[in-house]
Design a protein that fits this description.
Strand content: 15-25%
Number of strands: 8
Helix content: 25-40%
Number of helices: 6
Order of helices and strands: HEEEEHEHEHEEHH
Length: 221
């Protein structure tokens, strides 16, 4: 089975998405790109994360999106994942969530500002892409545009997309952005947060590059 390790990881992190409350039902999706093979592994459409098996994870050609392995239909957001891999050489894994507070911020059409230093894991802020129907080329284009120079993007009236060098990194960023969205919602209810400066966010971005056991270890300090 090609990309076996990546497909097993997608199954494992899909279950973690459910367990951690980052999505519910069959919502959201995960993918991993292998540029050496020219392939992308992505969750199948409408399959329960609890019952998903590695052989059901769909393989697509990165260049064309043509199916290669898996037998099931890929996630409806496969084009969004593929476009980001084409445009962003720094990203090799993507996690799309429907977590409550990220969705709340996205439904307001808000950018997530520097309310907490952990926002710097994704960028100086996290933009909100304008609404487009799920699974459309328009949504793929808008997400790619608004995620430029960032590792996460909010999708208006929809959810959150986070990316990284590995699936572990992408998942961690999605978790931390959900935490930051919750803090943002709560502080707005209390009258509005005190935001961190651009200079402080730049400093935190640099610090995160060397935090943890490796440059890719985006763990919370």
């Amino acid at each position: 089975m090609r990309m076996e390790q990546a497909r097993c990881a997608i199954v494992d992190f899909g279950r973690k998405m459910i367990e951690s409350g980052l999505t519910h039902g069959t919502g959201g999706n995960l993918s991993v790109a292998d540029r050496a093979l020219g392939l992308m592994a992505i969750t199948p459409s409408g399959v329960s994360y609890e019952r998903m098996t590695p052989d059901q994870v769909v393989l697509l050609e990165l260049a064309s999106g043509a199916p290669v392995e898996g037998g099931l239909r890929p996630s409806s957001e496969w084009e969004m994942h593929r476009l980001l891999y084409q445009e962003r050489a720094d990203l090799s894994a993507l996690v799309h969530t429907h977590s409550r507070f990220a969705v709340t911020v996205a439904c307001m059409g808000w950018t997530l500002p520097p309310v907490h230093y952990l926002v710097a894991l994704a960028g100086p802020d996290v933009r909100c892409a304008p609404y487009a129907p799920y699974g459309t080329p328009e949504l793929a284009r808008l997400a790619c545009e608004e995620m430029r120079a960032r590792r996460a993007v909010l999708l208006q009236n929809h959810g959150l997309l986070a990316g990284g060098e590995t699936l572990e990194t992408a998942f961690s960023i999605a978790e931390e952005m959900e935490f930051c969205c919750e803090i943002y919602c709560r502080t707005r209810a209390l009258g509005g947060p005190v935001l961190l400066s651009d200079a402080e966010m730049e400093r935190m971005t640099e610090r995160f590059k060397s935090y943890g056991q490796s440059p890719d270890a985006h763990n919370q300090p």
